[in-house]
Amino acid sequence: MAGVYVIGLTGGIASGKSTVARRLVEHGAVHIDADHLARVVVEPGTDALARIRATFGDEVLNADGSLNRAALGSRVFCDPASLAQLNAIVHPAVRALANELIRDAEQADPDAVVVYDVPLLVEAAVDHPFDLIVVAHADEETRTRRMVDLRGMDETDAARRIGSQASDADRLAVANVVIDTDGTLAHTLQQVDALYERVRAALDR
C-alpha cells in the first residue's frame, strides 16, 4: 500500500508493548489493535460468528446470541484441530478488517504511519506485508515481576502465561527493531522516539 508505512508491533505478555504503542500514537501514528479486531469480527450478525456457530454448535453462544468466549475457549484450548478451525475463521476476518482500516488511514493521510499491534504475530504466523517489525522485549524475570506486581498474578500463573506464548528467540528472529523495555520508562521512550524519527525520515526521502 504505497505511502502508508505499516509497523507490525509484537511482544510477549508484560513486555511493555502497550507503552511502545502509546508513544507511537503520541507521535501521530494510527493504532490498530489485533486483539480488539478479533472481538469485533465475532460480534452478533457477523459472518465469522455464524461460521463459528455452524462449526462448534449453539453451546458456544450466550442466550443473547453473542459469543460465549469461555465455552469456546474450553472447546479449543486442548484440541489443536478445533483451534485450527477457529483460527481459519477468525484470522482472515481480522486481516480483512485490518486492511480496511489501513486503507482508511491512507485516505485520511497518504503518508500515515500505522502501528498494527499484533500480540500473537509469531504464534499466528501473521504474514501481513509490514514495512517494519518491532518487538518489545524484556527478559522473563522482568515480565514475571510485572505480572505479579501490577496484575496481581501469582508466579506460577505468570510463568504459565509466558510459557504458552512464543519463545523470546522466535520473536527476536522476526524483529527488524527491538525495543529493550527492561530498563526505565525513559529509556524505553527514548528508543521509541528514535524509531519514529527513523520511520519519518524514510517516508520523507
TrEMBL record:
One of its GO terms (biological process) is coenzyme A biosynthetic process. GO terms for cellular component: cytoplasm. ATP binds at A14, S15, G16, K17, S18, T19. It holds the Pfam family CoaE. PROSITE patterns: DPCK. It is found in: Cytoplasm. The keyword Transferase applies. The keyword Ribosomal protein does not apply. It is an enzyme of class 2 (transferase). Keywords: ATP-binding, Coenzyme A biosynthesis, Cytoplasm, Kinase, Nucleotide-binding, Transferase. One of its GO terms (molecular function) is ATP binding. Transmembrane segments: none annotated. Pathway: Cofactor biosynthesis; coenzyme A biosynthesis; CoA from (R)-pantothenate: step 5/5. InterPro entries: Depp_CoAkinase (IPR001977), P-loop_NTPase (IPR027417). Its EC number is 2.7.1.24. Belongs to the CoaE family. This is Dephospho-CoA kinase. It comes from Cryobacterium psychrotolerans.
